[in-house]
Each structure stands twice: as structure tokens, then as C-alpha cells.
């Protein structure tokens, strides 16, 4: 199994530009999570999906952030317009939510720098 | 997250020494997950605890859950340079399996050869 795949691994963009981060979860998993990690705030959950449906987006910072999951094998996190304070490492994770408890498997992350 | 406090924030130990990292929750724990992260990489799942008093081991790493204290500890025996990294605990505070985890700030471990 290839694990959770994220692209790009690094993204440098100018303030005001649109940024799209991509994630391919592990085949067979039915839940997908987007996290943001910074030194100041640690690892924060932004949004998660179950069976392609957004369940909890209370962690999404503001309307500039949006996430979609059009099918079970693909998800995007979009920031429009981007700002310097969005600079962080963004992780995608997937799990199989069916048993009582389930561990999440993380991708390698996308390091975003907004100048 | 203040809901989950890890201590210490950082730790430097000599190779071969034992160490313990603690994770304390301000809310009821329904599941506690331990992960390890190396700089610039994603999180690697280590262990999951779900019952009070439960203890799990993998190689030289042992994790315990004290449900009454809402606390978990991660103990490494005879540390090696390969143990270096950031250890994060994640808690499921929901009564059902929502899959939603809140993470602590992490404990950075350095092991001196």
C-alpha cells in the first residue's frame, strides 16, 4: 500500500494567490482528515469527511478555506486568497471508521509558504 | 490544544537511559493515541489505548492509560538515537467513535549517543 499521498510536497506562493492542496487517502478508508501544523498552535484539525461527506468543519479558520471530497479517493483543500499567516505544514490523514476505535494514517504533508 | 497537555515539552537524554512522557486530558478520554513525528515528515502511529489501566508495548516503548486521572504515559526503555523525534498524543473525547482527535503540543526528544 502506498499510504496517504499528498501533493505538492512544497508550495511557495505570493499573498493573494489561490492555493490547492491535494490528498489521496488509503484505499478502503472511509474517513479523511485535514490538519494544519505550526510551531505556535501545534497540530489543528481543520475538517474531516466520512464517506465523502463533510462532518465537522469547525476548525476551518475562515471563508478563505474550503475543502472538497468528490469521491472516495481524492480530496482538496483550497485557500483563496492566501495570506502569510497561512504558512504552515498541512497534513491529510485517513482511517477506516467502522470499528469502535480507529487509528489515523498520515500523509507526508505539504509545506506551504506564503510570501 | 489546552484540552490535552503534554509534559515535558522537550527532553534530552543520554543513549541507554529510560524516559517518560506524559499526556493529561481536561476531558473524559474515550481513546488515546500515541504518534511519533520526525522533522519534515508525517505522523507515524505507535499505539492506541482505550480502557482504563490498559498497557501496550512495542519493542522498547510502553504506553499506559490511567482513566481516572485522564492521563497516559509513554515510557521508553534504554533509549536509542532512533527514538529521537516528536511524540504526540491524540485524544478522542467523543462518546462515540467520531474519529475526531485533539492533539497535544508534542514532546521533542533528543537522544545523545
Description of the structure:
- The complex is a heterodimer of chains A (115) and B (113).
- Chain A has no helices and eleven strands.
- Chain A has strands at 5-7, 10-13, 19-24, 31-38, 42-50, 53-56, 65-71, 74-79, 88-95, 105-106, 110-114.
- In chain A, β7 (65-71) and β8 (74-79) form a beta hairpin.
- Helices cover 0% and strands 55% of the residues of chain B.
- Chain B has no helices and eleven strands.
- In chain B, strands 2, 4, 5, 9, 10 and 11 form a six-stranded mixed sheet that branches. In chain B, strands 1-3-8-7-6 form a five-stranded antiparallel sheet, with no helix packed on it.
- Chain B is globular.
- The model of chain B has no long low-confidence stretch (mean pLDDT 90).
- At the A-B interface, β5, β9 and β10 of A face β4, β5, β9 and β10 of B.
Record the SSE blueprint:
The complex is a heterodimer of chains A (115) and B (113).
Chain A: E1 5-7, E2 10-13, E3 19-24, E4 31-38, E5 42-50, E6 53-56, E7 65-71, E8 74-79, E9 88-95, E10 105-106, E11 110-114
Parallel strand pairs in A: 2-11
Antiparallel strand pairs in A: 1-3, 3-8, 4-5, 4-9, 5-6, 7-8, 9-10, 9-11
Chain B: E1 4-7, E2 10-14, E3 19-25, E4 31-37, E5 43-49, E6 55-58, E7 61-66, E8 71-76, E9 85-92, E10 102-103, E11 107-112
Parallel strand pairs in B: 2-11
Antiparallel strand pairs in B: 1-3, 3-8, 4-5, 4-9, 6-7, 7-8, 9-10, 9-11
Amino acid at each position: 500500500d502506498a499510504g496517504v499521498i499528498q501533493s505538492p510536497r512544497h508550495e511557495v506562493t505570493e499573498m493573494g494567490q489561490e492555493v490547492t492542496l491535494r490528498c489521496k487517502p488509503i484505499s478502503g478508508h472511509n474517513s479523511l482528515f485535514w490538519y494544519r501544523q505550526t510551531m505556535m498552535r501545534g497540530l489543528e484539525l481543520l475538517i474531516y469527511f466520512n464517506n465523502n461527506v463533510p462532518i465537522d468543519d469547525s476548525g476551518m479558520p475562515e471563508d478563505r478555506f474550503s475543502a472538497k471530497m468528490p469521491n472516495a479517493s481524492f480530496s482538496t483543500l483550497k485557500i483563496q486568497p492566501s495570506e502569510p499567516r497561512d504558512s504552515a505544514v498541512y497534513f491529510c490523514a485517513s482511517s477506516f471508521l467502522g470499528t469502535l476505535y480507529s487509528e489515523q494514517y498520515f500523509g507526508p504533508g505539504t509545506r506551504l509558504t506564503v510570501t | 490544544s489546552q484540552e490535552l497537555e503534554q509534559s515535558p515539552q522537550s527532553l534530552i537524554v543520554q543513549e541507554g537511559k529510560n524516559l517518560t512522557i506524559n499526556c493529561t486530558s481536561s476531558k473524559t478520554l474515550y481513546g488515546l493515541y500515541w504518534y511519533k513525528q520526525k522533522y519534515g515528515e508525517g505522523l507515524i502511529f505507535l499505539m492506541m489505548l482505550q480502557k482504563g489501566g490498559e498497557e501496550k508495548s512495542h519493542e522498547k516503548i510502553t504506553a499506559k492509560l490511567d482513566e481516572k486521572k485522564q492521563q497516559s504515559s509513554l515510557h521508553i526503555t534504554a533509549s536509542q538515537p532512533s527514538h529521537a523525534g516528536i511524540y504526540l498524543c491524540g485524544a478522542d473525547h467523543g462518546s462515540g467513535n467520531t474519529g475526531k482527535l485533539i492533539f497535544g503540543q508534542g514532546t521533542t526528544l533528543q537522544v545523545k549517543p
